[in-house]
Specification:
CATH superfamily of the largest domain: Rieske [2Fe-2S] iron-sulphur domain
Helix content: 25-40%
Structural class: alpha+beta
Number of helices: 1
CATH class of the largest domain: Mainly Beta
Radius of gyration: 31 Å
Shape: elongated
């Protein structure tokens, strides 16, 4: 009988210990959750407005460092010059009207759609606005 009581006391003590530890981990997790949320927080990138103060003329495009600006009678649009494969700077083949990667020969049309090559995604397309009244050019938002 004495052994049975000791066994029951031991079981009750181990249950209490288990519950105490379990609640301790739950409380610790609840306290650490805001910290982990803070560590994963990223500040959103502010948009960059680039002003192009030149007319595109008959050629209908302007090469910039980050993008290429196209315009026709329907409007203007800008396409990223970073290849979606490995980030090489794209060249514009004016005769074929294609953006071509000099590194691995991915090809994109003027709207940024992938046509060929190892790149798997289309290019980023940036919004373009006509410059305010009284000035020439365009404003591209990156």
């Amino acid at each position: 009988m004495l052994e049975k009581m000791k066994s029951m006391e031991h079981e009750a003590g181990s249950r209490r210990r288990f519950l105490r530890r379990g609640f301790g981990w739950i409380i610790l997790g609840a306290m650490a959750y805001p910290l982990f949320r803070f560590l994963g927080f990223r500040v959103p990138r502010k948009p960059v407005h680039v002003r192009i103060e030149k007319e595109l003329g008959l050629r209908g495009f302007a090469l910039e460092h980050e993008f290429i600006l196209f315009a026709n009678q329907d409007g203007a649009w800008a396409v990223s010059r970073r290849c979606t494969h490995l980030g090489c700077t794209l060249a514009f083949d004016e005769a074929a009207r294609l953006l071509v990667c000099p590194c691995h020969h991915s090809q994109f049309d003027m709207s940024g759609k992938r046509l060929a090559g190892p790149a798997q995604r289309d290019l980023a397309v940036y919004p373009v606005e006509k410059a305010p009244e009284g000035s020439k050019g365009y404003i591209v938002t990156l």
